[in-house]
Amino acid sequence: MTTGPSMTPAVLAQNVGKHNDSTATETHTERMTGSQAIIRSLEKLGVTDIFGLPGGAILPTYDPLFDSTQIRHILVRHEQGAGHAAQGYALSTGKVGVCLATSGPGATNLLTPIADANMDSVPIVAITGQVSSSVIGTDAFQEADIVGMTMPITKHSFMVRDPQEIPRCIATAFHIASTGRPGPVLVDITKDAQQGMMDFSWPPTVEIRGYTPVTRGHSKQIREAAKLLAQAQRPVLYVGGGMVRANAPEELQRLAKNTHAPVVTTLTARGAYPDSDPQNLGMPGMHGTVPAVTALQKADVLLSLGARFDDRVTGVLSSFAPEAKVIHIDIDPAEISKIRYADVPIVGDLAQVLPELNSLLETDYATELSPLEPWWQTLNALKENYPLGYTTTDDGLGSPQYAIERISALSGPEAYYVAGVGQHQMWSAHFLKHEKPRHFINSAGLGTMGYSVPAAMGVQVAHPDAIVWSIDGDGCFQMTNQELATCAQNNIPIKVAIINNSSLGMVRQWQNLFYDGRYSHTHLNTGAGTVRIPDFVKLAEAYGCVGLRCESDADVDATIQQALAINDRPVVVDFTVSPDAMVWPMVPTGVSNDLIQIAKDTSPIFERED
Q1: Is 141 a catalytic residue?
Q2: What does the DSSP assignment read for 411-476?
Q3: β-pair partners for 372
Q4: Which of 479, 506, 582, 586 is the catalytic position?
Q5: Distance CA 115, CA 480 (A)
Q6: How far apart are CA 500 and CA 87, in angstroms?
Q7: Is the pLDDT of residue 333 over 50?
Q8: Which of 414, 412, 440 is nearest to 427 (CA)?
Q9: What's the average model confidence in pLDDT over 108-124?
Q10: Which of 136, 288, 502, 547 is deepest in the core (most CB within 10 A)?
């Protein structure tokens, strides 16, 4: 293993400060406990908000936290909520999110948000207490090998037994989480390390063996990419969540105008390129728009920008974009050619690679770039003939798509929208108007039910004056709705739109389409004509929130406006909608994206090419 360069205090402060606005240094040492060192380290790193739940093994750290005037601690009702809140905080700000839990079940309850953050490249640091060093390995009370459990789902996991190592490990955790491809880092600290004495100084010198992320792309490869784009007749910019993580949407807009190419934005990249720009074809993939999916299939050059060729985007891989040469730019070398061979691989940070690529396109290749008129004739015909839309169901119940459309229209692009997973997530991706990066947040790779409410809580803490909507399903909502108590008691006025179709909607859709309508264990009995267990309005009121119900499209605007007028407490709106509403378009699993359907057993009729 090679050893990377050690980080000097100035370099460390620069790196962590880029994400948490802190460059504080001090040269003297101070005698303190390991627990005090944890809190002091977090303060020096610029942390102002932590989400957590105390317990025996982390209790020594909660004592000095009580005295901190810089850090606000949000007491969650379940550790999973702390992890998702840290994710929402991180995704909406670009800073590192922090969560805190005790050993054993407290730590294991963080596994789902840690895995979720790992899949979606979210920079969080999870700090857990551990039983004392003397009893590790004895099956002591609330002992669990959280380091071993998290090794496959973190960028790195630390076990700290020496209090003198605490500042270095926490500073290193923040650096690893926030650099390269962002992701989660665990710091597990034994109880005796928290209680022991140490000499604190800041910042520590950090050595990270073998960790040297490449940020500057190879100039020869970037020139090859420019050359290929200049020759392209049917290029597509395939934009993934890495564009948002790199804070490079401005360079993306510059690239789109230079190349005249259409843009497709994945689930984690919605808002990276504005929906209002005619070059944006929308979301690709299993539930992507017809223009986006078809553009990828017909492309001759595919420029992948911080995307990873997820199976939900490619469908059957062997039939995906069959005529395209691929330029793949990603900061993670492991993603290059992992799934689709890259004809022009470029390892680097989009924020550094795209300016160089754009400069070449504006100078050396400016006269070779085509306005792509034949390509846009094809794409504009697809946009005209197959726009996003929906039809109301025959049961007279509300339309989920309409409710989401109106939430977007009345709340505006400055609002933040946080979705769970399932039908409501796909409708949110399509029917919200995405104009800004970091304003649409959801669980994409792992697809975690219960993500929305606690993640929205984290977003609201980071942006206390903003409108924050949790758009959730009635199934997802019931997994983590206890965090409404956290919101109500901490003046976190999120607004929750429950798209209540009284079922596990996406599972029910698949049962309808592929299992002959045999709805095995997907009815939740929360909606119209059921026993309403639970009654979401009463549940909201029990948690100290305002509860509203909307049962028809005619009442949607008035209900949303009522929710928007309330800012002193959380609001929960039960949008009672039809269980028969489905997500379209759809590419059935196991088939080529060429077989995209716009309704059940109905596919677009494409003009034959001569």
Answers
A1: yes
A2: H-TTSEEEE-SSHHHHHHHHHS---STTSEEE--SS--TT-HHHHHHHHHHHSTTS-EEEEEEHHH
A3: none
A4: 506
A5: 17
A6: 25
A7: yes
A8: 440
A9: 98
A10: 288
- The Cα angle at residue 420 between residues 461 and 542, in degrees rounded to 5: 65
44, 95, 191, 495: which is the annotated catalytic residue? 191
With beta carbons less than 8 A apart as the criterion, state whether 579 and 396 touch: no
Check 18, 142, 149, 562 and give the catalytic one: 142
Active site residue 142: yes
What percentage of the chain reaches a pLDDT higher than 90?
92
445: closest CA among 539, 553, 563, 335? 335
* pLDDT at 597 > cutoff 80: yes
How high is the pLDDT of residue 28?
86
Residues 576 and 206: their CA atoms lie apart, in Å, by 54
Catalytic residue among 32, 79, 80, 159: 79
> What does the chain come to in residues?
610
Task: Read off the pTM.
Answer: 0.95
What are the backbone dihedrals phi and psi of residue 479, each rounded to the nearest 5 degrees, phi first? -85, -30
Q: Is residue 279 annotated as part of the catalytic site, yes or no?
A: no
Q: What is the pLDDT of residues 44-87, one digit of tens each?
A: 999 999 999 999 999 999 999 999 999 999 999 999 999 999 99
pLDDT bucket at 19, cuts 50 / 70 / 90: very low
Model confidence at 601, pLDDT cuts 50, 70, 90, reads confident
479 catalytic residue (yes or no): no
Give start and end residues of each alpha helix (H) in 299-398: 311-314, 350-362, 373-385
Query: Does 227 qualify as catalytic in the annotation?
Result: no
Name residue 560's amino acid.
Answer: I
- Here the tokens at position 589 are 């699993």
What confidence tier does 228 reach under pLDDT thresholds 50, 70, 90?
very high
Cα 499 from Cα 188, distance rounded (Å):
38
Given a contact cutoff of 8 angstroms between Cβ atoms, the answer to whether 269 and 288 are in contact is no
The residue-averaged pLDDT of 104-127 equals 98
Look-up: residue for tokens 């669980």?
A: 443
**Cα separation, 305 vs 327, whole angstroms:** 9
Q: Among candidates 168, 159, 150, which has minimal Cα distance to 114?
A: 150
